[in-house]
Amino acid sequence: VVLSGEGGDEYFLGYERHKVLISLKDYRDYGITLLDRLFFWLPKFRGKGRIFSKLFVIFKQPISYYFTHMMVMENYSGFVKWKEECRKRNLGPVELDQVFYLGDDLLRKIDYATSLCSIEGRVPLLDCDVIANAQNRQDEMIKDGLSKTILKKMLCQYFPVDLFYRSKSGFCLRPEVLLK
Fold first, then answer.
1. What pLDDT was estimated at residue 167?
2. N or C: which end of the chain has fewer CB within 10 A?
C-alpha cells in the first residue's frame, strides 16, 4: 500500500488558478457568450490563451476561464457540451478541478500506475471528513498569496516546515526516459 497526496491541491486550492477562481466563486457562466464564441472563432495566435484568460476574468466567466486556461477544449462543440455538464451538476468555479481534473484524470493515473506495480494506492486527503472540512473552509485556504495554508499549517506539526513552503513543481516523464 502506498499513500498519495492527491486531492490536496484540488480541495485545498493549491493551484495558481485557484487564486482567480476563488475570487469568482459566486459567479456561474453556464451559457455560451460572445466572448466564448470569439475564443473558438478566432484563429490561433501567440498569446491568445493569455488574452482570453484575462478577458474571462474581467467579464466574470470562471468556467470559461478554467476550460481555456486548462486547454481542455480544442473545439467549440466540446466546449458547449462541458458548459452544459457544469450547468447540470451546478458546479462552481472551485469545484471544477475536483470533478474534472482529479476525478477524470489524476485518480485514473494513480489507479493505473499502482495496478501496474501490483500495489494499492490510498488517498487520505480524499476522506469524507477531510473533504467536508475543506469545503466548509474555502475562504481560509489562500492567505497572503499562499495556497493550501490550512493543510500546510496542520502538516508542519508532523513534518519539516521546508517540505511545504517551497515552489510547486509538477512531474512528468523526461524525454530521455521515453527514448530508452
1. 74
2. C
